[in-house]
């Protein structure tokens, strides 16, 4: 790209400090069919893929020779959704995708993959038997599903080539968003700062509702890459990157701790822990309950290094009916509430594993 008249030959006033590009919001839906049982599994993902590396000349010299088109990245996501044996697991699929990109393109030094999973659950169907319990027994339908709420599981994967060229390292975070929860008692908020700006009344029993955003991180692990650049796979296809990818590609470093390859189990435990603490904690505040959640997740998942929560306080305000002589504001008698979306409290924190 030419410079304006009168400025040709002048040095650039800035330098390219960092650069990253890729494809956002790649929507993928995959059906996996078991030919023997006729059972189908489905997953729906929103995928983001970004890369770093020797791509600076596309910015500074308008030279696209180093650019793998973002449309090609979308095609790679779809291709791996077809051939990867890990497509039903968002963490393993994201790791496979990141390793594939670095193995296929030698000038990329890092790949960043975010996989957001939408919830589908099997529809229960009646078997025609009451099971002796007076009700219809349900079994899971083989290929019929329903959208199980707005909650989304996500995985963030970074695969970065080692500077010595011997493999790569993977950094993985997992979590969930938009897990809406509510309990109608077992929560209080008292003894906070009271000054000239305070109008909030202290309460020893209130509705506690929030939309949970949870993010946890693993320790860094080593990853083996495939051959760099153009090469042939076992069937003679050229330049396809790493197709045969599995747990053997990882260096667990002998810790015996949980590993991002097992994120499905960790994610399920973290979700159940979050729900259990929320339900059973006699909450003095959102902050106190959040801290207990994080401590439990760390205690139950060796290898998880930090846990972060963002908890917006979903307010339910008792309707004042004093004008007609009805008490609906004291905690014991408050039964009719007005949900209030905004403004809302917003509480967040990260709990990191203590150094030993």
UniProtKB/TrEMBL annotation:
<feature type="active site" description="Charge relay system">
    <location>
        <position position="70"/>
    </location>
</feature>
<feature type="active site" description="Charge relay system">
    <location>
        <position position="23"/>
    </location>
</feature>
<feature type="binding site">
    <location>
        <position position="71"/>
    </location>
    <ligand>
        <name>5-hydroxyisourate</name>
    </ligand>
</feature>
<feature type="binding site">
    <location>
        <position position="71"/>
    </location>
    <ligand>
        <name>urate</name>
    </ligand>
</feature>
<feature type="binding site">
    <location>
        <position position="206"/>
    </location>
    <ligand>
        <name>5-hydroxyisourate</name>
    </ligand>
</feature>
<feature type="binding site">
    <location>
        <position position="286"/>
    </location>
    <ligand>
        <name>5-hydroxyisourate</name>
    </ligand>
</feature>
<feature type="active site" description="Charge relay system">
    <location>
        <position position="315"/>
    </location>
</feature>
<dbReference type="GO" id="GO:0005777">
    <property type="term" value="C:peroxisome"/>
</dbReference>
<keyword id="KW-0659">Purine metabolism</keyword>
<feature type="binding site">
    <location>
        <position position="287"/>
    </location>
    <ligand>
        <name>5-hydroxyisourate</name>
    </ligand>
</feature>
<feature type="binding site">
    <location>
        <position position="189"/>
    </location>
    <ligand>
        <name>5-hydroxyisourate</name>
    </ligand>
</feature>
<feature type="binding site">
    <location>
        <position position="286"/>
    </location>
    <ligand>
        <name>urate</name>
    </ligand>
</feature>
<feature type="binding site">
    <location>
        <position position="313"/>
    </location>
    <ligand>
        <name>urate</name>
    </ligand>
</feature>
<keyword id="KW-0560">Oxidoreductase</keyword>
<comment type="pathway">
    <text>Purine metabolism; urate degradation; (S)-allantoin from urate: step 1/3.</text>
</comment>
<dbReference type="GO" id="GO:0004846">
    <property type="term" value="F:urate oxidase activity"/>
</dbReference>
<feature type="binding site">
    <location>
        <position position="70"/>
    </location>
    <ligand>
        <name>5-hydroxyisourate</name>
    </ligand>
</feature>
<dbReference type="GO" id="GO:0019628">
    <property type="term" value="P:urate catabolic process"/>
</dbReference>
<feature type="binding site">
    <location>
        <position position="189"/>
    </location>
    <ligand>
        <name>urate</name>
    </ligand>
</feature>
<feature type="binding site">
    <location>
        <position position="70"/>
    </location>
    <ligand>
        <name>O2</name>
    </ligand>
</feature>
<feature type="binding site">
    <location>
        <position position="70"/>
    </location>
    <ligand>
        <name>urate</name>
    </ligand>
</feature>
<feature type="binding site">
    <location>
        <position position="313"/>
    </location>
    <ligand>
        <name>O2</name>
    </ligand>
</feature>
<feature type="binding site">
    <location>
        <position position="206"/>
    </location>
    <ligand>
        <name>urate</name>
    </ligand>
</feature>
<dbReference type="InterPro" id="IPR019842">
    <property type="entry name" value="Uricase_CS"/>
</dbReference>
<dbReference type="GO" id="GO:0006145">
    <property type="term" value="P:purine nucleobase catabolic process"/>
</dbReference>
<comment type="similarity">
    <text>Belongs to the uricase family.</text>
</comment>
<protein>
    <recommendedName>
        <fullName>factor independent urate hydroxylase</fullName>
        <ecNumber>1.7.3.3</ecNumber>
    </recommendedName>
</protein>
<dbReference type="Pfam" id="PF01014">
    <property type="entry name" value="Uricase"/>
</dbReference>
<feature type="binding site">
    <location>
        <position position="287"/>
    </location>
    <ligand>
        <name>urate</name>
    </ligand>
</feature>
<dbReference type="InterPro" id="IPR002042">
    <property type="entry name" value="Uricase"/>
</dbReference>
<feature type="binding site">
    <location>
        <position position="313"/>
    </location>
    <ligand>
        <name>5-hydroxyisourate</name>
    </ligand>
</feature>
């Amino acid at each position: 790209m030419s410079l304006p008249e009168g400025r040709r030959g002048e040095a650039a006033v800035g330098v390219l400090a960092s650069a990253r590009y890729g494809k956002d919001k790649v929507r993928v839906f995959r059906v996996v069919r078991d030919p023997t049982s006729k059972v189908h599994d489905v997953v729906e993902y929103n995928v983001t893929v970004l890369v770093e590396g020797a791509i600076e000349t596309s910015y500074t010299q308008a030279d696209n020779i180093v650019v793998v088109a973002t449309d090609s990245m979308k095609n790679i996501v779809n291709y791996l959704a077809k051939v990867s044996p890990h497509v039903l697991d968002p963490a393993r699929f994201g790791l496979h995708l990141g390793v594939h990109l670095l193995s296929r393109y030698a000038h990329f030094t890092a790949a960043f993959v975010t996989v957001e999973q939408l919830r589908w659950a099997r529809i229960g169907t009646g078997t025609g038997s009451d099971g002796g319990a007076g009700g219809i027994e349900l079994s899971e339908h083989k290929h019929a599903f329903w959208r199980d709420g707005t909650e989304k599981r996500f995985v963030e994967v970074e695969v970065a080539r080692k500077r010595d060229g011997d493999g790569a390292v993977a950094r993985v975070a997992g979590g969930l968003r938009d897990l809406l929860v509510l309990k109608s008692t077992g929560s209080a908020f008292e003894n906070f700062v009271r000054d000239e700006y305070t109008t909030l009344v202290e309460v020893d029993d209130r509705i506690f509702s929030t939309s949970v955003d949870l993010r946890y991180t693993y320790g860094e692990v080593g990853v083996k890459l495939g051959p760099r650049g153009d090469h042939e796979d076992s069937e003679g296809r050229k330049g396809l990157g790493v197709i045969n990818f599995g747990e053997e590609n990882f260096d667990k470093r002998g810790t015996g701790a949980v590993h991002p390859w097992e994120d499905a189990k960790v994610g399920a435990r973290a979700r159940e822990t979050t729900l259990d603490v929320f339900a059973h904690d006699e909450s003095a505040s959102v902050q106190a309950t959040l801290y207990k959640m994080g401590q439990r997740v760390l205690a139950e998942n060796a290898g998880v290094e930090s846990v972060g929560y963002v908890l917006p306080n979903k307010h339910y305000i008792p309707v004042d009916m004093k004008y007609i002589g009805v008490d609906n504001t004291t905690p014991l008698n408050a039964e009719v509430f007005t949900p209030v979306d905004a403004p809302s409290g917003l509480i967040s924190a990260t709990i990191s594993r203590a150094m030993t």
